[in-house]
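Incident review: delayed structure delivery

Summary: a single-chain prediction request sat in the queue longer than the usual turnaround. Root cause was a stuck worker, restarted by the on-call engineer. No data loss occurred. The affected request and its eventual output are reproduced below so the record is complete for anyone auditing the incident later.

Affected input:
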Amino acid sequence: LVVAQTLIDFGLKNQEGTLVGQVQAQYAKYLLVALSPLSLSGYVIAQGLVQKAAGAVTQVSSALYPASARVGTHNIRPLYYRLQFGLFFLALLGIGIYELVGYSFLSWWLHSSELVSIVDSVLKVMVWYFAVLVLCPLASTMLDSRGRPELTSLFTLVTTVIEISLAFILFPRFGLFAPIYSALIALVLTTPALLYVTDRIIRVK
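Output delivered after worker restart:
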């Protein structure tokens, strides 16, 4: 009974973060609905590309979860740091590749100069958002595997609250780019705290 209650508590705390993450992923579509259909389509396409790339990073962190749950801190820490540095390096490499061939790829794929221009403008900001975002899934996995899913949910909630608040504040001035700038600012503000807390926990436990 105690084990079952513990598992239920863990699952509920973990799902809180998932639910908040869904709100974070969808709110901008409703905020931007007043803009032109072309602008909204450009945002959705760019967001979808970034989410797919982020999903690949999440799969890497999911693969690490069983190992982080069963091995000692001494063994998992070096692997965690190597993966974090590796993912960040790959994200920067991806930014460089996009700068070289991104526009050409979008032109070949979308066949609309207006849409390509919008998607490209959005992605030029979103790639930097992604470069910071890649540092979060592994850190969240480490917290979850150490039995602290409430911290993952807390950071997700705080990031979402900051992002949505800023998006509504910035929307009158920046329009399409309001949720993009707000997402980047929120992530830059909260990710260092997430990384610091994760580092402290895996050092202690």
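Verification: Residues 73-110 form the longest helix (38 residues).
Action items: add queue-age alerting; document worker restart procedure.
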